[in-house]
Every structure is written in C-alpha cells, then in structure tokens.
Amino acid sequence: MVRLVRSFVQSILKLVNSVMAMVGLAMILYAVWMISVWQRHTGELPFGGSDYPAPWFIYTFLGLGITLCVITCLGHIAAETANGCCLFLYMFIVFLLLMLEAAVTVDVFLNHDWEEGLSLLLAMILKALGPHRYDDSDDDYSPETAPLLKNAVHPPSYVVGDPAYGSRK
C-alpha cells in the first residue's frame, strides 16, 4: 500500500512539473518572439548599447520562464529520486514563491496606494543599484549623456499676472 501511494505521489508530482515546464518553455519562447519583434521594429537587439529604453517586460518574462524551468527541473529530480533533501529544497522554493505571490496579491487588494508604494520600492532598488552621488565614476559621463546623475535642468519660473499691463517700475 505504501508503495502504491508513493508511486501515485511521484506520478502526480511529475505530471505537475511537466505542466510547469511547458509553461516555462512557453514563457521563454514568447520572450524570444518578443525580442524578434523588438528587433524588427527598432532594427537592433534589446541587449546593451541601444538608444531605446530597456524592454524590462521582455527581460522579466524571460527571467521568469528560465526560473520556472529550473524549479521544475529540481522538481523532476526530487520526484524521481525521492530524496528528502531534494524534496525539502523544492518544497521550500515553491513555498517561498507562493508566499511572495500571496504578499503581492494582498498588497494590491488591501493597499489602495500600491502603485505609489511599488514605484517607491523600485526607486529605492534603482537608487541602490545605480551610480552613487559624488562618486569618481560620475565624472566619466558628460551631463548630456547622463542627465540624471547631476546638473539637473530646472524649468524656468513663470509669473502669473495680467499680461496686458506689464510690470510697474
């Protein structure tokens, strides 16, 4: 009886991992298709050295597809070997991903200012990853090529008044 249950659980785990692997491969193929469409429209690949903004959606979709394929590969190994360590690592990764998904879902539904919070979080991540202020490497870039580093141009101030009479002196 124990062998039958174990075989059934292994088969179900393999089936679920096969479906997840197909979804991961579909995500990778869709990202490759989006890269080809990007290249067709812009004339260049979306990897470094482009004058266009980075296509973060394509990168994210490709990264998620690769991550999903790696996780399903670990799941197939865990299902085939029935190794306790492998199964624990697989279940731990799946649990972390489910908790992350649940946290994002709860935040979106309960927090009405989730867009502001998300943009602040992304801004903090970009600030942490980006070039730091007063770093020696900041001088390597001219202000025209890197306007966000320093020398920000402020719009001219304007006066609200009656333009028909002008100013009094």
UniProtKB/TrEMBL annotation:
Residues 137-169 are annotated as: Disordered. Its main location: membrane. Keywords: Membrane, Transmembrane, Transmembrane helix. Coiled coil: none annotated. It comes from Ziziphus jujuba var. spinosa. It is found in: Membrane. The lineage of its organism: Eukaryota, Viridiplantae, Streptophyta, Embryophyta, Tracheophyta. It is a multi-pass membrane protein. One of its GO terms (cellular component) is membrane. The chain crosses the membrane at residues 12-36, 56-75, 87-110. This is Tetraspanin-19. InterPro entries: Tetraspanin/Peripherin (IPR018499).
